[in-house]
Amino acid sequence: MISAPDVVAFTREEELEDELCSEPPLPEEYSVPLFPFASHGANPWAKVAGSKFTRDFILISEFSEQVGPQPLLTIPDDAKVSGTFDLNYFSLRIMSVDYQASFVGHPPGSAYPKLNFVEDSKVVLGDSKEGAFAYVHHLTLYDLEARGFVRPFCMAYISADEHKIMQQFQELSAEFSKASECLKTGNRKAFANELEKKLKDLDYTRTVLHNETEIQKKANDKGYYTTQAIEKANELASVEKSIIEHQDLLKQIRSYPYRKLKESDFHPYEPECALGQANAGCGQDLTASDPAEPGETHLYAHVPSYTPKLIKAKSAKCFDKKLKTLEELCDIYFFTQTLDQLHQIERTFRGDVCYLLTDQISRALLKQQSVTNFLFEDVSFLDEKPPEKQYRGCRGLSQDAVDRKCSEESPAPKVVISLGAYKSSVECVPIKMEQEIEDSQEPKMTESVTFEHQENLDYLDADIKGSISSGESIEVLGTEKSASGLTKSESQASLPVSPSPQAGRSKVGSRRTVSEDSIEVLSTCPSESLIPEDFKASYPSAINEEPYADDEEGGLRFTPKLNPDNADEQEDVSKQENLVQVDSSCCIGKESPNFLEPLPDLGQKPCDEDGVVRIPPQPYRQAEQGLRGSFGGFPSHDGISGGFLSYELDSRYLTGSREVSKSSLDECSDSTSYISSAASTCSDRTPSPAHPACQARERHKKKAGQNALRFIRQYPFAHPAIYSLLSGRTLIVLGEEEAIVKKLVTALSIFVPNCGVYAKPVKHWVTSPLHVVDFQKWKLIGLQRMASPAGVNVLHALSRYSRYVSVLDADSKTLRCPLYKGTLVSRLADHRTQIKRGSTYYMHVQSILTQLCSKAFLFTFCHHLHLPISEREPEESVVNRRMNFLKLQLGLANEDIKIVQYLAELLKLQYIQEPGQGVNPLLRFDYVPSFLYKI
Amino acid sequence: KSSVQTIGEEQIQNPYTELLVLKGHQDIVRFLVQIDDCRFASAGDDGIIFLWNAQTGEKLFELHGHTHKITAIAPFSSSDASEEKKHLILTASADRTVIVWDCTSGRQVQKVSCFHSTVKCLTVLQRLDVWLSGGSDLCVWNRKLDLLCKTSHLTDAGISALVELPKNCVAATVGKELVIFRLIASDDGSEGWNVLEVKRLVDHQDNILSLVSVNDLTFVTGSHVGELIVWDALDWTKQACECNFWDSSVPPDVQPEIKLSQSPNETSVQHLTSDEECVFAAVGKGIYVYNLQMKRVIACQRTAHDSSVLHIEKLPNRQLISCSEDGSVRIWELREKQQLPAEPVPTGFFNMWGFGRASKQANQAAKKMQDNTPMYFLELVGDLIGHSSAVQMFLYFGELGLATCSADHLIILWKDGERESRLRSLTLFQKLAQNGDFQLKF
Fold this sequence. Notes:
The structure holds two protein chains of two kinds.
Chain A: H1 16-22, E1 57-64, E2 68-75, H2 79-82, H3 87-95, E3 121-127, E4 132-142, E5 150-159, H4 162-167, H5 169-219, H6 227-254, H7 259-263, H8 271-280, H9 286-289, H10 326-329, H11 332-349, H12 353-368, H13 379-384, H14 387-402, H15 404-409, E6 426-427, H16 447-470, E7 474-481, H17 488-494, H18 500-514, H19 516-523, H20 539-544, H21 546-550, H22 567-585, H23 620-632, H24 635-654, H25 657-664, H26 692-714, H27 718-726, E8 730-735, H28 738-749, E9 762-766, H29 772-777, E10 780-784, H30 789-800, E11 805-809, E12 814-818, H31 824-828, H32 838-860, H33 863-866, H34 875-889, H35 896-912, E13 922-924, E14 930-934
Parallel strand pairs in A: 6-7, 8-10, 8-11, 9-10
Antiparallel strand pairs in A: 1-2, 1-5, 3-4, 3-7, 4-5, 11-12, 12-14
Chain B: E1 16-22, E2 29-34, E3 39-44, E4 49-53, E5 59-63, E6 70-77, E7 87-93, E8 98-102, E9 107-112, E10 121-125, E11 130-134, E12 138-142, E13 147-150, E14 159-165, E15 169-174, E16 177-185, E17 193-201, E18 208-213, E19 218-223, E20 228-232, E21 238-242, H1 264-267, E22 269-274, E23 278-283, E24 286-291, E25 296-301, E26 309-314, E27 319-324, E28 328-337, H2 347-353, H3 357-367, E29 375-385, E30 391-396, E31 402-406, E32 411-416, H4 417-435
Antiparallel strand pairs in B: 1-32, 2-3, 3-4, 4-5, 6-7, 7-8, 8-9, 10-11, 11-12, 12-13, 14-15, 15-16, 16-17, 18-19, 19-20, 20-21, 22-23, 23-24, 24-25, 26-27, 27-28, 28-29, 30-31, 31-32
InterPro entries (chain A): FLCN/SMCR8_DENN, Folliculin/SMCR8_longin
GO molecular function, one term (chain A): guanyl-nucleotide exchange factor activity
Pfam families (chain A): Folliculin
């Protein structure tokens, strides 16, 4: 029964990585020639080998009024990350498409300068020459010394993977909005402080001037005013005016509606602790760990004492004046918070897009399994995210499959125009198209909605000019109007600006933008051969939007089939459409969403037949629905990513250890990165947890997976041990050394079913004798073996309770536990597995356990398996039926039945548990003999 | 060395495959008492009384009131005079008080604290609607906790056990003596009772440890030196005596003449229980079955446990449960063993297991027993290991399971896993139907 393991791959206790690293390399003559570009940081799986950076990063740039667009910082802050990538150049790119409206200064009809609480704009940019794609989040910060009081900034998530940007747009947008909100809040605070100081200065200046004037008046007895006196008076008047202006500004900045923020679940800032945090220089987890913290209550209350200065009447507005840095512009606490958030974003979205997607989908699916998911999943993390989001993402997918046709005909309204990189031309077409007027599916659309969009277009128009003239190669792939900050009504509440002139302008603007310019550009569009292969998927959508340019009458309406102007385009369109169809028909990902329930509400579709996105101007949560468009708008991408996933898994299986060791030498700055990146794309393959807490969890998963992998290779009796855990029999790992025991416990913990939604029933290290209560509570225990008399007691207790426990002796490498003859565990823990990486193995285990859960679910919730059909039916026949079901229907053999029965018991307990009181911890056991296994 | 029978890990007949640990007590739990079909109370040295749901293991009430350890506990269900049955329990403590608790509300009903010594035993005479407390004297109380009458000071040791006998009599054990009291209705009032000492029986050589009433005609006492005497409940005469449980080589004799060769602990009769036919005695580490008709031990397990057996109980299905200081609970089955009386018994086999019946049977058969007597043996069918210290007592709840209490401060509820699983399924589907989840998202 017990045979020596075929492969005992790892005999030492070091980490798997060490193991691999220390492996001697093959002689040169035996080695497979490496991918020729491997040295350039690229790899065969890289989709865009031309990119000059090795992994995704975040770039913060500013459009400085002195020097123009300039990069400020990157996250991670590592020169290696951007590599030879020209940050200056790219900053110029991304800053040149700032769609943000910034009407600051003196609007017509207003006496005082008005602050505009501008909403962030979000665009997707692609620069195919650089092989870089970016989600760009434009925001405006206030600076008293800046022109118009505003400083335009942008945060960009730059990746070589276009699909990632497009498909994660929604998530990126959400996360960046948080960062932006945080930064802007800090900025407002700093700005208010600055204003207060300035006001004090002005006040002081006024006093001084006043005094001087008085003195002059007294000195002047000639009866007429000297030039000096008039000058002074003018100066005084201008100071007075300035004071009023500044007071008004202060009022404006203070009137920012904080209510808005409180509605969202993002409250990273609490002033009291904020200062402490900032002083401590960290505040790492505050953002996520304390989401319930009350919002700022008296944010601007605390102003340090300040001695006012005299202000010269004419403030020096010269170019050698040093502008404030980003750090100075923002309250230090909020600045660190923002950086933390950005780091978090970087960690979250790092890795291949298929991984991100799979993770999101699986999480969404897990959420749906509300009855069983507690068994092997950490349910707590599922609750962290707002539930709608997960469902949405998934639904977007499923809808994709359902409404395939629709999306093919009018794909991706987000995508605007693409252009060959070789041509020096730019086109920017507003993404936010106006709603179809004869739209029947969304009757809810109101005038205000339309207005919102028009206004948005207007903004676009206003800012586009610069970029058009720049004449550089930029593809604007998409944009998204932010809805996070304020709804229109609220922003206007604080700004009593009449909206009518804007609306009027917007019409003109949008028409013009949409007219000839883009057509010209498109007609010079290169042949498709020059377009990168994987870029094509999104390409047709761009083409599809051309007619919209022609459609003068309908403003922003467009009809794909009617573009009479250009025959070439027509051809292009059809070609592209074919392409899309091919893509989607062969995709794998298409099928997966079919598991999901069909979209319940078709009226909620993000795009209708015209491919118009309608995004109602709503705050964030609601906006997600609209944002779904970014998800659903790319049917072919799903296909690609789906296919890619399986391909990747394959490649991961196939990767030889040599390759693994080779690639493991790659510099991975982050400790969470995988040991192998052989199968990775250009970006780092680190898994992407969404929260800091998940980070640790992810790390734990990986570690546990590795240890488990080592365990099943090292111990031939891994199967009965795992069976013990799965059937609810407490497994005790007995050993002298804590580290070894803990490692084993960690390894085995992935097989332990949870008894409730709380922590895993795993106790890593115990030194005192065990009691029956412990077996009730813990299902996996690390126990210290001691030579002392106390140790004897420990062992005595163990032998006394031997019927409840299986004992894995880590020192003598023996296992005492019941026999296992089932087949399930061998699939779960095959010691000949080709899986090399801990996280992969972890996922393998999870998939099999999920399968097991579904069996348990089925078994638990089949009425007739547990209760008689009729009153008179004897209990025996129910038992027979039950056993038949387990054996025949579920295909379980021998001890596997017990596993499912145990899981079913857990499900029952969980389900019938009354809310408020925990599950009564009970210990179930069997009277079965144990056997001793040895290596 | 140990001759204790072991059963191993495969116990097909053991139905208890699920356990629930009830935590609450902070000291030794000594008493378990059943209140109704699904409730029981526990009490012990920490002076706290807990009420539990035997089905769910839910803690119903925590009764605080005593400052010292509990020395006696008795259920005191109200008479059928009132409409609904009122469940009360009486508890006596070393703080020289007796408290009456209401099990429905979990409140203290009344407290009596006029005792001169610790009350060591409580008995409720349902028929007379009075209850007795036994300490250094015997007191009779009515339901309203009025002291009806009391005896004079008996001994310092006091009454250790009380049992109701017919004709308004009670038997009380006081040291080595067995004292019979009779309750006589007083002349002046309807409520009044007088208590009279009727008889003192001094047949036991050592302290009487256990006292049990078998039926209206007989009661049984057991002493520290292993004497078991069967008494007539009406005229208080000795019907039979068994006193050499520990020595199978010597033929049992009616007279307790055998010199003790073993320590008294090994032979003390810790606990007695009975059904109509037999008295089951926990003697030292062993269990003995004494047939009242045949007046002899028909089956025994000389070393049933590693250490003293503290409590035994007969189940309806010919099973016997015993618990012991060694922390284990064992389930035995009384099985018939057809034997030809003349045939010599393979003594070696039985001795190996500590059986002593062979020679005994031969002797007895030679004496007066008729032929073809079915002989019995106790077969171990299961053991329950959970407590880490002496199991003081247990309470059998039939289908609901078994509650055991122990010196490790725990109470364990042992349950039939199959049945529980079925019940849970039932609850599950009830809840499903209730929630209307049948249609929902599954």
